Amino acid sequence: MSKKDASARPEARLPKGLFDISAQEIRATGEMLRVIQGVFESYGFEPLDTPAIEYTDALGKFLPDQDRPNEGVFSFKDDDEQWLSLRYDLTAPLARYVAENYQNLPKPFRRYQAGPVWRNEKPGPGRFRQFTQFDADTVGASSVAADAELCMLAADTLEALGVPRGQYVVKVGNRKILDGVFESIGLNSNDTSKHLAVLRAIDKLDRLGVEGVRALLGKGRKDESGDYTKGANLDAKVIDSVIGFVTSDELPARGAIGEEGRAELAEMDRLFKASEFGNDRVKFDPSVVRGLEYYTGPVFEAELLAPIKDERGQLIRIGSVVSGGRYDGLVERFTGEKVPATGISIGVSRLLFGLQRLGSYKESASQGPVVVLVLDRDRIADYQKMTQALRQANIRAEMYLGESGMKAQMKYADKRGSPCVVIQGGDEKAKGEVQIKDLILGATLTSIENREEYLKKQAEAQFAVPETDLVEAVRRVLSRHQA
RNA sequence: GCCGCUGUAGCUCAGUCUGGUUAGAGCGCUUGACUGUGGAUCAAGAGGUCGGUGGUUCGAGUCCACCCAGCGGUACCA
User: Fold this and answer.
1) Which domains are seen in chain A, by residue range?
2) How far does the CA of A316 sit from the C1' of B72, in Å?
3) ipTM value of the model?
4) For B75, which residue's CA is nearest its C1'?
5) CA-to-C1' distance for A431 and B38, Å?
6) Burial letters for A236-252: b for 16+ Cβ neighbours within 10 Å, e otherwise?
7) Is the pTM of this model over 0.90?
8) Distance measured from the CA of protein residue A20 to the C1' of nucleotide B38, in angstroms
């Protein structure tokens, strides 16, 4: 091919924020999903799946405009000119589903759902443009028992995934308490922009500390890189009051709304205590905000407490791995009818990322297939037959399908992580035998100095058996390496 | 979006400050020593638009400008 052709070829590359998923990761994720599913099932939730694509207007607030239809969400036009989008979470599709099937669903409706979601935004460490969420929601229950249960579910799930107690925490807050605070400091609830600015500032408490939040509530803040963030411009006295509130352990309530929120948290606390979920698992934290305009009552999030480092040993923060709360307005968007709902979402991709970084996630090493070497090309049928015999004995096996010689076939088997290979050349065929070579045992041979021991091990690692004993012999080798 | 850092072989990087013949290392890859036998050892080999474009210069991986990409922070985050 000429150079000109080369420049016309597409570059093999992956869009940013998106990743190929290797065999190992598929196995790890699959294992994780099964564990989560087991816990969710045990809580009585019922599975549901919905498509990756929804009508954009059903997804909510990110309606594509003419110029930038893909802000935040990936969107495209159907051939009937209607906007479609890739879902950006599993909650909006749930709301659509409930609204669409309201009559026939048992109320409260409790479902779990797992699947990829997409966000068209800048990726960061532990932040991707496609990631997997695992959600559980209860729709049609206004009792905070539903909320409390989700917090317990979050804690139970993390422990089931191997996060030791004490290395995570589920933090619980309540938007009503914050609303009470806003009321008491005279923040007009119509002034949403200031409202949001204050909420955002509070949300950053754990990251920026008290002084950072103070700056954001006041004139604004400059970060280490020199970027400047505009503040909420509150009076010093009001700032003190807000800071006093979010740093308090007491959750003091202000006003009628605040009192309502406090009562809800007290009720949740009672439920936690009754089921023996102590402060080492679930903790009240006034700075938990989440979702800004979205949540209407209790809000919760879980995070990993152990410090997480990147490849270079630099500390990185991946944020919360589970988040949720009560949203009483979502279904109403469709039906006009108020339907109370509460849910949590586990960031599976992020959690897996975090657990892997912590090294606390043990991936079960998976073994490659037994490889039947092809030495005499004209006897492929024989090799295929041996392979089938192994498969029928429930042994993962394959015949070498490449074109290369024996050495390359051995390398191939090695790379595949094969426990052993089956060898039958002309000599063995004449004797009606096959050779079994144990690659795992064989790998230990090079380190043996003592000649006698070496020979002994080598005889163990590779041996001949009658053709009829093939399956039996392979089984014996496999059993050597069972964990 | 804003700020900062980094772009040299498949990977990790040296070389850039102080411009000068064919641009290096380790790992990986291919082949061979090796008997029909992976992993060890030794040897050979393949592999590079030095992120891109323009400029300065007799001469640019090296200096300058702009652009692009990646990473990190920050903003936004249902």
Assistant:
1) 23-358 (3.30.930.10), 370-480 (3.40.50.800)
2) 10
3) 0.81
4) A229
5) 25
6) eebbeebbebbeeeebe
7) no
8) 28
